[in-house]
Amino acid sequence: MSEYRERREKLWEKVRAQGVDAFLLVNVEGSEQPNLRYLTGFTGTFGILIVAEETLFLTDPRYTEQAKNQVDLEVLEVRGRWIPQVIMRLRELGVKRVGIGSTRTTLYLFEELKKAGEGLEFVPIGAPVEELRRVKSEEEIEKIKEAVELTEAGLQWILGKIKPGMREREVALELEFWYRKEGADDVAFDLIVAAGPQSAMPHHRAGEYLLKKGEIVLFDIGARVDGYCADLTRTVALGEPDKEAKEAYKLVLRANEAGIQAIKAGVSGKDVDAKARKILEEAGLGEHFGHGLGHGVGLEVHEGPRLSATSEDILVLGNVVTVEPGVYFPGKFGIRIEDLVVVSEDGARVLSAFPKDELIVVGRR
Ligand code: ZN
Ligand code: ZN
């Protein structure tokens, strides 16, 4: 049985238990793309999947050929308005209660379906596909590992190139170009290159700031390979950093290690966050760590489960999560260290291998 078919069967069991007799997944402009890809392998932007006793896949003429190559289901072509055709298929299948994901379906689509589907009941049923996606197979972990390795090779390459006077945006673009040239589908998110005081903003976008000697450069980067994302942060210094930055780095590293140590199946995302946070709090830096400790990564860079003070997630085998504590001093600098780990039989298996034991100093000459 193909992995896609296996996933669809799991989904079918899951949604049926919620009292519906079909699950409708509509990807017409991209919001459901990761879910559709997960269930069918289809990488296009227009695809509709009906999972029921019988499973149907529909696309439009732009994607018919592609779908025939990628999808292990009969490809039904829709021309013109698609909503009435989907309703017709649902009626043919004899279903009454149609489950639909709540997190990515727009209210507009929901209303349109209800209007067109007299006699059918559309029921929001949470995020069943995202829930399945949290647990990665060995094949998926292998793909993430490939993305991590490419991400690290790129970081190694760019660290040999950066020098004072370069613009953050130039550094980020060179790195992105390198990833694509070396086989990445894409970058997993807009690469963050944050230098000096810019690094004090956790989600700064690479901008016009010029790299300066003696300042911090924070790289939060990830290539996407075969659909799967990497997410890695390393903070380096361009020339000898001041003592304050070195001290902060040591503490963030300890928090990162404590977080990784705490990871195992059965532990809550909240507890893992607390273990790492405690290190920074005890050093009086709790206030400077304003975000959660980590998040799941897979076909998307931000998925479940979450590691944070408010998370209700419990880790299970096969989760892939980041551990990324950071401290930020507005107007001065920020330090973050982010690794990607798999929740495995013997605790955390760390996928990222880029050196982190001390604040790396580049361009010392
Ligand atoms: Zn990141
Ligand atoms: Zn992250």
Poorly predicted sequence stretches spanning 5 or more consecutive residues = none
Strand count:
20
Query: How far do the termini sit from each other?
Result: 58 Å
- Shape, please? elongated
Largest sheet: 6 strands, mixed
Average pLDDT confidence is 96
- Could you name the CATH topology of the largest domain? Creatine Amidinohydrolase
Radius of gyration, in Å, reads 23 Å
The CATH architecture category of the largest domain equals Alpha-Beta Complex
CATH class of the largest domain: Alpha Beta
Listing every helix as H and every strand as E from the N terminus to the C terminus, the arrangement reads HEHEEHEHEHEHHHEEEEEEHHEEEEEEEE
Bound molecules: zinc ion
**Tally of discrete structural domains:** 2
Strand arrangement within the widest β-sheet reads 4-3-2-1-5-6
Structural class: alpha+beta
Count of runs of 4 or more consecutive helical residues: 10
Relative helix content: 25-40%
Strand content: 15-25%
Q: Write the CATH homologous superfamily of the largest domain.
A: Creatinase/methionine aminopeptidase superfamily
Overall description:
Strand 5, helix 5 (107-116) and strand 6 form a beta-alpha-beta unit. This protein has 10 helices and 20 strands. It has helices at 3-16, 33-40, 64-70, 82-92, 107-116, 128-133, 138-159, 168-181, 243-262, 269-282, and strands at 22-27, 47-51, 56-59, 75-77, 97-100, 121-124, 186-187, 192-195, 215-221, 223-225, 228-229, 232-238, 294-296, 303-307, 320-323, 326-329, 333-336, 339-344, 347-350, 360-362. It is of the alpha+beta class and 365 residues long. The N and C termini lie far apart (58 Å). One zinc ion binds next to loops. One zinc ion is lined by residues 220, 231, 233, 338.
